[in-house]
Structure formats: C-alpha cells, structure tokens
Task: structure prediction
Amino acid sequence: MATLAPPAAAQSAPASAGAATDKAIDPLDVSRAELYAEDRWQEPFRRLRAEAPVYYCEDSAFGPYWSVSTYKPIVHVEALPEIYSSQPTITIADPIEGEPRMPMFIAMDRPKHTEQRRTVSPAFTPSEIGRMAIDVRRRTEEILDTLPIGQTFDWVDKVSIELTTQMLAILFDFPWEDRRKLTFWSDWAGDIELVHNEDTRQQRLMHMFECAAYFRKLWDEKKGKPMTPDLISMMLHSDAMSEMDDMEFLGNLILLIVGGNDTTRNSMSAAVYGLNLFPDERTKLETNPGLIPNAVQEIIRWQTPLAHMRRTATQDTELEGQKIRAGDKLALWYISGNRDESVFPDPDRLIVDRENARRHLAFGYGIHRCVGARLAELQISILLEEMAKRRMRVHVEGEPSRVKACFVHGYRQMPVQIETY
Result:
C-alpha cells in the first residue's frame, strides 16, 4: 500500500493550533468545512483509506494533525486511552489560549471520566429507556399527526429539531416553553468553525455563559430537594459531580446538550434524505417494517452525525507503520471508518438490511462510547415505526442545507413533502 506520510521533519512539527499558511491546499486535508457543506467529503476520504489510512496533514486551519480514516486503526486508538488521551479536547480545534476552559467528562481520562460518566449513566439504563419509550411515542405521534400532506415544509425544523429538543427538555427537567434555547445553545456549542473568527468566538462565549447561568438557576432550585430522574438532579446528588465549578458544569452541560441534540436530530433527517436517495431501500422498508431496528443502525452508520473525535498522543508510539510523537493530535474520522469498504461492502449505499450495520463507529468505541446511544436508537426507531403505521412517505424536494463544519455532520434545512402509500 502506498503511503502519503511526510518526511521526518514534517512529522515532528508541533501539534498546536494555527491558521493555514499560504501553501497550496492539501487535497487530503479533510478538516475543510466546505467539504461537508457541499457534501463532497466522500472522495478525499476514499483516497485516504486506499493510500494512507494514517496520514499526517501538516497544514490546516486547525494546525497539523494525523487523519485516521479506516476502521481498524480507529478501533485500535480508541482501545488504548492511556496512549491516546481524550484531553485536552475532543475536537480537532485546539483550546484557545486565554479562553476559559470548559471541562467535560468525554474529554477526560480515567479515573475522573469513569466517575462522572457513572453519574449520568442511570438516565440511560434499559429500565429508564423502557419508561421513556411511552412518552417518546406519544410525542412522535403528536408531531407526525400535525404535518401537512402535499405541502412543502422543513423536516429539520418541524420534526428532527422538535422531537430531539423535547427529549432534551425532559432529560434536564427544563422549562418546556424555553426548550428551543437548547437547540440554539447546541448549534453554537457544536460549531467549531466559529473559533476562526474573533467576533463569532466572542458571541459563542457569550451564549455559552447564558446557557450556564440558566442551568445554574435550575441547579440552585433543586438544591436540598429529593433526587428526581433528571440529569441535573443526578449530577447534584452525586459525589463525582456535585462540587463542579462553573466551567466544568458548563462543559458537561454542553456535552449532554450537543450529544443529545445534534446526533439524534441529524440521524432523523438522514433517515428521510437517505431513503429518498435510495427508493429501492425505502420500498424494502415499507414492505417489511420488521427491518426497522436494523435500518436504524444503518441510517446512523450512513450519516455518522459526529464526523470525528480527537485524541492526543501521550507518548511516542507507532500506528499503521507511522511514527506518532507525544503531543501529536489525531482525528479519528468515524465518518470515514463507517465507509470502510473492507468492513461495509458498497459503503456509500444505504442498505436497510445490511448484515453488519450494528458494527458502525458513530457512537465511538471503548470507554467513551456514547452514553445515550440506546436513547438515540429508541427515538429514531419510534419515528420510523410511527411513519410506517401512517404509511407516510417523505419526498425531499430539494438539496438540503448542510452544516458547514468537520465536527457535527448534519442538516440545517430540508424541504420535503409527504404522501401516503
């Protein structure tokens, strides 16, 4: 296999953030936001997988980094958290010097990661998922029954955002009338491109502090009261998270909001877009609703709502024959691992009865695997089930507007019309 590794001098370049230089754009720099906004990320990743599964990008808007683009090395890195740390951050964007840090348990290593993750895990146990299923179904039914037949509307806003925002409000015991604030904060928190512009960076900080102040009020209201089955109360009543300072509190809120909002909502949009793109697969699902559980896994694989996670090497090591140095930044491209031809034949197709769809990496792997994965699967499953009950077929009326970023892989708007079959 050919490699595209840089010479030793380039490999030893510091892994610090910085703007791209005046050099020609590296066609294999897959951190470029326009690749995702224009939905043309597939080809550079295809080339990386074929020629350089572990590739050093010397020059990007986020500084130098290693791209890990195939399934096996992604799993290898995820399985070795002592060598490949989740600190200081989980995205390719480095922390900005002088900006307040917002620690979150997904960007922590053991043992603190384990302690804080254990605090929120009870919200996502099988019994809790079962308890929430009744409410998820009721709310899904209500939303689907209000959708216009034969009229164009925005699926992202009317369905995907509304369903996931309602779920977040319930998880946080958040004031119902203000629930769209969660969507607003999630959009600002998850957009790593904002760091490139000082004005938008400051706006982002302002909105994050607004988020923290709002949640601090909810926190204070629950102090001294019995524990309730919501995330704020669980944190408040735990040894691991009850004494968090303001910035760690904010960091974990951002993690739970983005994790619960952007991921599920973009998979719900992908379900409509993908089934419209592959009508033979839609027919397969319509004629056999028993395929829905597997189709959910395939939709999540095909979309991969978080394109990457970042790890930082704690020591000199080797990965797929490439010398990784302590401090080097690695981007684990889940979006590419989920299109690895050696694992998923014909990977660019959405195949609702794909035999190994559940092997996808969209939830991560190892100790940092998404704590809310079962809830996300539940919400998408119920959406497809209720659409099937109504014999609801959704036609995409034009190309969707997509998120312009290499972290959240999603949709801003998607015009659709509904018909029944």
About this structure: The longest helix spans residues 246-277.
